[in-house]
Fold this sequence. Notes:
The chain is mainly alpha-helical. It is built from 11 helices and 4 strands, in the order ααααβββααααβααα. The protein has one domain: Orthogonal Bundle (ABC transporter involved in vitamin B12 uptake, BtuC), CATH 1.10.3470.
Amino acid sequence: xxxxxxxxxxGLVVGSVYALVALGYTMVYGILGLINFAHGxxxxxxxxxxxxxxxFLMGVTPGxxxxxxxxxxLAVAIxxxxxxxxxxxxxxxxxxxxxxxxxxxxxxxxxSFLLQTIAMMLWGRNYHTFPQLVSTAPMQPVAGVFVTxxxxxxxxxxALIMAALIVLVTKTKLGRAMRATAENHRVAALMGVDTNxxxxxTFVIGAALAAVAGVxxxxxYGIAHYGMGFMPGLKAFTAAVLGGIGNLGGAMxxxxxxxxxxxxxxxxxxxxxxxxxxSSYQDIFAFIILGLVLIFRPTxxxxxxxxxxx
Length: 310
């Protein structure tokens, strides 16, 4: 039972990060039908921008409180990713909206490699230690189950952000415009919606979520690297497909489910394979799930958002 509860906690932590990143994928797909494979690299940019800010603040004001330093780091990382998301949409994707689907897909892959290369030039190839501004001292709420304050912060923070996003999309004027653009952007434009602005804001919001997820991911593992966004981005895409890409609730559910499956798989893989595999092979579960979902339920757990075209 202790192992089960521990892996449950670990899965919720990882799944919360996957869900935040998956929301960026699913929002863009819901409006444009585009898989932005460069979205995972925004996670890396957010983490590296926050790291650079932390190092600067430590050098200038070494006595600053960890909470203030984390807040200022997020205040830098989020706008950086938002501006980058807007630039990507404006320069790389806007001209390709009416192009064959293969063109924006190849462009997205190219943007991913471009961002990784620029990050490697700026921060180098080495792994960087990410400051632990939130305590990592383990607590033991249940005998044999250890939880750290950073894990609690990740789970609670992700839940609050996802709830805020649902309210934004379902209860606000901007959300109505986003849903109208997703239904049919040409008809929405005829009704007075600035579809170019709405699409750009969708990229910007998704980039902000990726920045927060990047800081969470780096804080949880204590490292940052120019290539750190590739695997979480790929798994978040798997989570979006698992839940039903284009469906916000599906992205959240898919992220949490994928995190739990990966965590339980890592915890029990040696028993399942009689020692043939160990926990370092945990990534295989994400891609096994992706394959099974594409074969047996291509629309995902909650179904892909499919609209009736006017």
